[in-house]
């Protein structure tokens, strides 16, 4: 069985960067600390550190062990807090994976209702590619995923996709760039500098098809997985960029850009992916209800 005291010593040395610094923090002699780590390595059958000159460097196995140790001691801290806290004041962890194709403003609006529940909730957000987040969901390291598409059919995960809503897209440009356009919408996009979402974004293919249908050939000057970074480049006048129409006013206000045009022929969709067929988690129910009742209510009614 794993000796957690020895694991804690390993974790302390890895974080401190040296046995001497860790021994000072733990109030142990370097010899004791070194001996305990040696015993842990013997028990595991693999080296966790390599000595490079006077420095200690983690081996590949050591880096893996450190990632697990981080989680083990984080969970341990949460357990200690939960046992010490008064029940009425204890915040329930709500772990959410956010697909990096989902605009951060949309993610914020979707998650905000979870913070207003009668029972306090502490949101833990992880942003990553959908494929990796689905693995986290399968092993229950996240409770929910916010994505711009339903769960792929080929995903080897028994989960369920709950559509939160959809909306059209709006095209924005910095004022200095917008005033150079002379053509009418949508022909203003023809040969115009354009910033587009990366190839993994669900909106990418429908957007390119829309260009083909309207015989538009924009000059693509940048592709971005992160919508916030795309907006920053757009704000600087590098090119026209897109965002969901439901946050058009916010994008204009925060980035000082103007609307070039919009379309409902191309839509952004947003999903909550969970292990539940029927939503029961209070935070997930709040997110789903508010999305349908407020955020995407106008479009749903039209």
From TrEMBL:
This is Transcriptional regulator, LysR family. It comes from the Bacteria. The keyword Nucleus does not apply. Belongs to the LysR transcriptional regulatory family. Keywords: Activator, DNA-binding, Transcription, Transcription regulation. CDD domains: PBP2_NhaR. The keyword DNA-binding applies. It comes from Nitrosospira multiformis (strain ATCC 25196 / NCIMB 11849 / C 71). GO terms for molecular function: DNA binding; DNA-binding transcription factor activity. InterPro entries: LysR_HTH_N, LysR_subst-bd, WH-like_DNA-bd_sf, WH_DNA-bd_sf. It holds the Pfam family HTH_1. GO terms for biological process: regulation of DNA-templated transcription initiation. Residues 2-59 form the HTH lysR-type domain.
């Amino acid at each position: 069985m794993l000796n957690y005291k020895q694991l804690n010593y390993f974790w302390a040395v890895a974080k401190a960067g040296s046995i001497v610094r860790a021994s000072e923090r733990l109030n142990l002699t370097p010899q004791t600390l070194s001996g305990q780590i040696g015993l842990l390595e013997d028990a595991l059958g693999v080296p966790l550190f390599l000595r490079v000159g006077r420095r200690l460097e983690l081996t590949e196995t050591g880096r893996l062990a450190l990632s697990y140790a981080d989680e083990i001691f984080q969970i341990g801290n949460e357990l200690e807090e939960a046992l010490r806290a008064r029940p009425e004041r204890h915040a329930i962890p709500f772990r959410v994976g956010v697909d990096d194709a989902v605009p951060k403003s949309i993610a914020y609006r979707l998650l905000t209702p979870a913070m207003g529940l009668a029972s306090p909730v502490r949101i833990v957000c992880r942003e990553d590619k959908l494929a990796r987040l689905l693995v986290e969901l399968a092993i229950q390291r996240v409770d929910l995923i916010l994505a711009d598409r339903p769960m792929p059919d080929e995903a080897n995960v028994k989960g369920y996709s709950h559509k939160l809503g959809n909306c059209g897209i709006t095209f924005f440009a910095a004022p200095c760039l917008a005033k150079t356009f002379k053509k009418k919408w949508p022909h203003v996009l023809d040969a115009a500098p354009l910033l587009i979402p990366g190839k993994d974004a669900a909106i990418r293919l429908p957007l390119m098809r829309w260009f083909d249908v309207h015989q538009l050939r924009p000059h693509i000057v940048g592709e971005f997985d992160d919508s916030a970074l795309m907006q920053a480049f757009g704000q600087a006048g590098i090119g026209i960029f897109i965002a969901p129409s439901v946050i058009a006013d916010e994008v204009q206000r925060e980035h000082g850009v103007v609307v070039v045009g919009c379309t409902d022929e191309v839509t952004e969709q947003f999903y909550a992916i969970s292990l539940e067929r029927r939503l029961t988690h209070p935070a997930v129910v709040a997110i789903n209800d508010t999305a349908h009742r407020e955020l995407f209510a106008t479009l749903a009614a039209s």
